[in-house]
Write a structure and sequence with these properties.
Elements (H helix, E strand, L loop, with lengths): L21 H40 L1 E4 L3 E5 L3 H7 L2 H33 L5 H7 L2 H4 L2 H11 L6 H8 L11 H28 L4 H9 L4 H12 L1 H16 L3 H4 L16 H10 L5 H52 L1
Antiparallel strand pairs: 1-2
């Protein structure tokens, strides 16, 4: 008998790789590019309304540029040198920092304390929370006009109260420090409630277990506030301090309407940097080149102080967070020991 060998199976031809359809490529591109397209309107608007004016201001600052005559020749950094040689610039810078410190520091502290009170179990929470926001709704010009009358030198309400207690009236519009205190009080009146609500919203996200553990260890309200509430508000504190710095160094409305003339006082005792920019560009000098130079100097100052505030706040909050972690571990160990 002849042995039949099994026939070898016929190998199928190797299939050639399929081409990716255009619809599949389009779907892949959609997944990769659509997130950037969704956020692109913000960057486009920022480039038009933020980046372009900044670059154009830098361009104007190195040219002679008159309000009526227009662009002149290129002068380099001469506008900056001229600004630094003007005593009014240094006076405006001093006044700006003084008003900034008198407004921003008490503003953040009072807003933090008010938020802690509103976060507690008090009656009519909604009423008080809405009440702290009312000053923010009032227009800055209206606030300036009201406070300019309150701090009037002759017929102001504050001086009238001082006379009742047989105290000498204060020259709010003539002396340097009193005028700064009056303007800072306007800023604090308007922005403290706004910052209070931001702090309050952040406090409501803090886990209740942290406070319960602190109560078990015998911590009082003050200790809970220092060791738990403040460290947990790190990001919010950084945001509030940075925004308060930016707003405090750009103050204009309150100082502008503090008197009828709006020039910063007879001897420029409360003129700010933004008021000085306005006076350079649209006042007597009508020099857009110098006004742009001051605007860029103010920008660099704000960025520098913002970075310093960010670093200091982050270091303080990090140290507070490390202490909070140690306290939590101690609390856990003590609770475990009691359970045993």
């Amino acid at each position: 008998m002849s042995v039949q060998t099994a026939s070898k199976p016929v190998l199928e031809k190797e299939k050639s790789p399929r081409r990716i359809a255009f619809s599949q490529k389009r779907g892949k591109w959609d997944v990769q590019l659509s997130p950037y397209l969704y956020i692109s309107p913000f960057f486009i608007l920022f480039a038009i309304t933020g980046l372009f004016p900044l670059v154009y201001t830098a361009y104007v600052s190195v040219h002679e540029w008159h309000l009526l005559l227009g662009q002149g020749k290129f002068v380099g950094f001469q506008n900056y040198v001229d600004v630094f040689n003007q005593p009014t610039f240094w006076k405006a810078l001093r006044n700006t920092f003084s008003i900034f410190l008198l407004s921003s520091v008490p503003q953040v502290i009072v807003a933090l304390l008010l938020a802690a009170v509103l976060n507690a179990n008090i009656r009519a929470k909604t009423f008080w929370r809405m009440g702290v926001l009312l000053p923010y709704v009032v227009a800055p010009v209206a606030v300036g006009l009201i406070f300019s009358r309150l701090f009037g030198d002759q017929y102001g309400l504050i001086n009238a109260v001082l006379e009742i207690f047989r105290l000498d009236p204060i020259a709010w519009h003539s002396d340097v420090i009193p005028s700064h205190i009056a303007i800072a009080s306007m800023v604090n009146f308007r922005w403290t409630g706004y910052n209070t609500l931001i702090f309050l919203a952040a406090m409501q996200t803090i886990p209740k277990e942290l406070y319960e553990a602190a109560i078990i260890d015998g911590a009082g309200r003050a200790r809970q506030f220092i060791s738990i509430t403040v460290p947990q508000l790190r990001a919010t504190l950084i945001f509030i301090i940075v925004t308060a710095t930016i707003g405090g160094l750009q103050i204009f409305d309150e100082a502008r309407v503090f008197d009828a003339a709006g020039t910063g006082g007879a001897s420029k005792q409360w003129i700010t940097v933004t008021m000085y920019i306005y006076d350079l560009g649209w006042g007597n000098q009508k020099n857009f080149g110098r006004a742009s130079a001051v605007a860029l100097i103010l920008l660099f100052i704000i960025v520098a102080i913002g970075v310093i505030n960010f670093a200091i706040t982050r270091r303080i909050s990090d140290s507070g967070s490390s202490k909070l972690g140690k306290n939590k571990s101690k609390t856990t160990n003590s609770t475990a020991t009691r359970t045993k």
